[in-house]
Specification:
Largest sheet: 2 strands, antiparallel
Distance between the termini: 43 Å
Number of helices: 10
Length: 214
């Protein structure tokens, strides 16, 4: 039986099917994807899936599979606290002897604890807690990061500058790069992935430095 975690990591390993890649290449101005460019595209897609899946809000029915940052950080901190409490208790003179005397039925099953490893566990949990940012990436930020990673791919295969322009008649942004982003993004997300995409493209291009485009 496979769960959501198995599905998402399988998708990260191979984010695009051959048919999806052919559709991406079908964008006007792109004739083919060389192997290095294809790897660069799939790297960007895999990284996007990882960021998006790690930071998005849980959907109905997913429960604990995707806890928010606050919950993850609190869980790590609790592990560190409990590991140190157990280490301190085990180090107290006579603790184990008193415990086995009070609970003789547990004597045979009482585990052997490595005090140094309990401290290693506590430190590892603390490091994990510090890596869970209090604020930061969310699905929209992950999408803008993905757009930035697509810029050098697009410019390599089209030899054109990644840009967007506003269509006053249709009152929306358009352009070859926006179409390319849409094609690359659609296989990775659920319905409604295009919502606010033109604004994310605008912001991503504005935030990029010249070095990031190379």
């Amino acid at each position: 039986m496979t769960g959501p975690d198995d599905t998402i990591y399988t998708k990260i390993d191979q984010p695009y099917s051959d048919d999806e890649l052919r559709e991406i290449v079908g964008v006007h101005g792109i004739e083919r994807l060389t192997n290095p460019i294809r790897k660069q595209l799939e790297y960007a897609a895999g990284y996007y899936l990882f960021e998006w899946e790690a930071e998005r809000p849980a959907e109905v029915g997913e429960g604990w599979l995707y806890p928010p940052r606050k919950v993850r950080r609190a869980a790590y901190e609790k592990v560190a606290k409990k590991a140190r409490e157990l280490r301190d208790a085990l180090e107290a003179p006579g603790f184990q002897r008193a415990f086995k005397h009070r609970f003789p039925e547990e004597k045979e099953t009482w585990p052997e604890f490595d005090l140094e490893q309990l401290e290693v566990l506590a430190q590892a949990a603390e490091r994990a807690a510090t890596k869970v940012r209090k604020t930061g990436a969310d699905p929209r930020v992950a999408r803008r990061n993905f757009i930035k990673r697509l810029v050098p791919v697009f410019e390599a295969v089209t030899e054109e500058k990644a840009a967007r322009w506003h269509d006053p008649i249709a009152t929306k942004d358009t352009g070859l790069f926006l179409e390319f982003v849409e094609k690359c993004l659609r296989p990775l997300t659920s319905a409604g992935a295009d919502s606010g995409l033109d604004d994310d493209v605008r912001r991503a291009l504005k935030e990029m430095s010249p070095a990031e485009r190379s």
